[in-house]
Protein 1
Amino acid sequence: MDNHIFEGRYTTENNRDVVVFLIGMRINKRLAIRKWLPVFTAMPGMIRELYENQEALGFLSMENYFGLRTTVMITYWRSKEDLLAYSRGQRHLTAWKNFNRKIGDTDTVGIYHETYVVPQGHYEAIYGNMPVYGLAKASGHMPVTAEVRTAEKRLRTGVK
């Protein structure tokens, strides 16, 4: 991962649709490690698969966050069709079946996801003194110019 810091203000292109998919888990019973650890360890294989097959799968980029009990992975996709196709793929289906077999409806660990389909021109971002990050990794990283100096301008014009 490149952690080069880009000094100044940058934004992202918003000239194409993007799907933002958040997925995560919450450890409800910390001492039940044998129950929640398999859920936690199922993700690295899927992440590897996504990065190894980005173009074919329509996967653009991701960011991960880990808290004391809750994790979240923010992923960016080319389309909802690509995201749904991946959800039906072998690796994901195997992980989902294993989760249901081991955890099911117990309260040991919680899982969640949220999906946002965002049309082109209806999102904007600003990055100050940051490496290429988040949506900029997924949609393109570019310096802020007078034409896109404010959030209102970035949303109104659609960066091209």
Protein 2
Amino acid sequence: MNPHISLPRQHSGPSNFGGAAPSNRGEGIRMPRFFKRLFKFPQMDFEMAVWEMTSLIIAPKKVFRSIYYHVQTKNTWHRPDPSFTYLLSFFLLLTSLAWGLAYADGFARTVRITLMFIFIHFLLISLLVSTVAYFLVGRLLGPGIPGLPGRRRQGLFVQPGDGEQLEFGYCFDVSIRAFFPIWVFLYVVQFLLMPVIARDYWVSLFFGNTLYLVSLGYYTIITFLGYNALPFLHHTELLLAPTAVFVILWFASLFGLNLPQHLAPILLTGAQLRKGV
């Protein structure tokens, strides 16, 4: 599937988390459309979500080019469609069961791993990252955000303003899409290669640590591409700075720190990896 791409309208109107405009008669803030569509599965575009997941690994830049279509038609950068979140949560459910059956002691710990993977690793961390990005990226790289000192507080969902503004919903879109390569490399590939990369050999250490470098590198690049697609943000290349830190830490880890041996048990909420798996 190749989505239609068109240029955004200049001087677009108010944007918000779900694309719903505020009432003109002072009726308050309407419920964001994202929440209204949480359980309307027939209206969700799972085909688009699958295309995005494939493109995030092969050509991530294409994913964020498609946002211009939503600006043109919906007057919002954010896509109020939870299909990507549901689909990735389902994939995390499957991988958590695989990790649990392989390393957990009993059904209760497997359920705990499942809850941790979906609600803590994915949703909570994505919310925290998107919240930090909403305040810092909008404040430092763009026109700022409403609600800070010196501005009239409008909240996170309805943001009327004079020009383009960073939406919290778009920050969440970027965060969950940046998490997909993390799932691919650290939840799937690492699980499949664990019998090899968890051994006490330098080659195992090299390939295991490289998995973490690649996954974090993808996360940083996708985050950069997401915010770089917004025409009102400036100097977004600063978001690539963490890659230099990751490379330095990766190089230092090659002198004896096997990341899969130390971080995979944390991924499993403290479960012990069997030696020689």
